[in-house]
Design brief:
Length: 479
């Protein structure tokens, strides 16, 4: 069917499930830290707006956390069901790393999550804030171990192969492999940016609809400060990551650039746009800038970037895909920087909350962080092909060898179940976002903060009330 084989369907199934999964941890990582900041500011300043925002975003965090856990379990099972040869070959490395993630991160998150979500009025303020911080730390520890495992598959070290299996000999080298620091920083920063634009777009949407209050303004202000500061930092991290990839995975860089061959001693041009043709071994319709590729990728005008024709055809990643996924990621990153700078200009002129063109842009930039993360992961993982463990094991040798019919059936079931289950979950999250923060939430008598008796907040009760009759969900409609 469509020239696909069982191996292709296994790869598509893994890509499909991980694409759904990564959305939820990315938002969870950012929201957990955001909640810790909000509660810390509330305890320090006693400004009710921070407490109101905490209650609002904790409900959205709870739903995202739940969907992330469910979708993550499926990923672990696929290593055994569809990629058993890989598990047999590299399980001595990846198995312990994923176990450490459960023991150090998931247990920490699960242990304090209940206090964070339901103990607002049952424990003291110090313990509740500590619980929120521990949940935030747990999400970052989880990122640490997951990225350590994945990065080792890109730049493996600290092992030897005995009887056809990878045996770790130096766990420090395994964990802190050459690409790990850059990938960890890149992913964590991407999660913060994705959350910032998610929060900022929510605020901008409410402002466009005429709902202007201190909580909404604070949401937009904090999100835009994050975009202004972190988006340029992410660009710098990405540059360092690119230099590391050029050193350890040069074929991936050549595919990303759509660069097929070098000519004499000429520096490498930067191809802005084009269509890499894997069969013809050329990039068609290309628009390029001379020497800029060498300057960006090697920080020199006299060094060349490795070309795809320097690698055997069977060792080349699919340039047609990664060429464009990389440009989607970079393009959205540049728009994030532009949005942050625009917000600073408006803030200095006193028009941050009133500029309708800016607010519309922030609304449209809402999913940009998540899309950029997906594009980045596609670039990273497809660019690693044809290797599942770079230079050690090919993807074709890693699968369980299921039949085409088997993979077709399971892929179809995954598509139906995921869109039904997680589609409903995402719809519910958007309903919470449209409802917006409740001003002075929990200010009834006997309430007011951690330690005071009151029915604990229920994360899934926020959207019980129906919208006012005739209220439209159209993002462009305004009161």
């Amino acid at each position: 069917m469509f020239g696909l084989e069982a191996l292709d369907l296994a790869r598509i199934q893994f890509a499909f499930t991980i694409s759904f999964h990564i959305v939820f941890p990315a938002i969870t990582i950012g929201l957990a830290s955001y909640l810790a900041v909000l509660e810390g500011l509330w305890l320090r300043t006693n400004e009710e707006v921070y407490r109101d925002l905490y209650h609002f975003w904790s409900k959205i965090f709870a739903v995202n956390f739940g969907m992330g856990v469910v979708s993550g379990l499926v990923m672990a099972y696929q290593f055994g069901t569809n990629w058993s040869a890989f598990s047999d070959f590299a399980g001595a490395v990846t198995g312990p790393l994923l176990t450490y993630e459960v023991l150090t991160a998931f247990f920490l998150e699960a242990g304090f999550l209940g206090v964070m979500l339901f103990g607002w009025n049952r424990v003291g303020p110090g313990l509740h804030f500590f619980s929120t911080v521990m949940v935030a730390v747990g999400t970052l520890i989880s990122t640490f171990w997951i990225l350590a495992s994945n990065s080792w598959m890109h730049t493996p070290q600290g092992f030897e192969i005995i009887d056809g299996r990878v045996i770790p000999t130096d766990w420090f080298a395994v964990v802190f492999n050459p690409s790990f620091p850059y990938r960890l920083a890149h992913m964590a920063t991407a999660a913060f940016l994705a959350t910032a634009f998610f929060v900022g777009s929510s605020a901008a949407w409410h402002l466009l609809r005429g709902r202007d209050n201190p909580a909404i303004r604070r949401m937009l202000s904090m999100a835009m400060w994050m975009a202004l500061i972190v988006a340029p930092v992410q660009a710098v991290i990405g540059d360092f990551h690119g230099l590391n990839t050029l050193e350890y995975q040069p074929a991936k860089i050549a595919a990303i650039e759509g660069h097929w061959e070098n000519h004499g001693d000429e520096p490498t041009p930067l191809i802005l746009f084009g269509w890499p043709d894997m069969d013809a071994e050329e990039t068609r319709f290309k628009l390029e800038i001379p020497a800029l590729g060498s300057l960006i990728l090697t920080h020199s005008l006299d060094k060349q970037v490795p070309a795809l024709k320097e690698f055997a055809p069977e060792d080349r990643p699919n340039s047609t895909i990664v060429f464009w996924t990389f440009r989607i990621m970079v393009g959205l990153g540049l728009l994030m920087i532009v949005t942050g700078l625009w917000s600073l200009w408006l803030r200095m002129r006193g028009g941050l909350y009133a500029s309708r063109p800016f607010l519309h842009m922030v609304v449209w930039m809402g999913p940009s962080g998540v899309i950029a993360i997906l594009a980045g992961w596609f670039t990273t993982e497809i660019g690693r092909q044809p290797w599942v463990v770079y230079g050690l094991m090919r993807t074709a040798d890693a699968s369980s060898g299921h039949s085409f019919a088997h993979m077709s059936l399971t892929l179809g079931l995954f598509v139906v179940v995921y869109f039904a289950l997680f589609g409903a979950g995402i719809s519910y999250v958007m309903r919470l976002v449209r409802k917006g923060p409740v001003i002075n939430e929990g200010k009834e008598e006997g309430a007011g903060g951690p330690g005071q008796q009151r029915t604990p907040a229920r994360p899934l009760s926020a959207a019980d009330e129906s919208f006012e009759e005739g209220e439209s969900d159209d993002l462009g409609e305004r009161n």
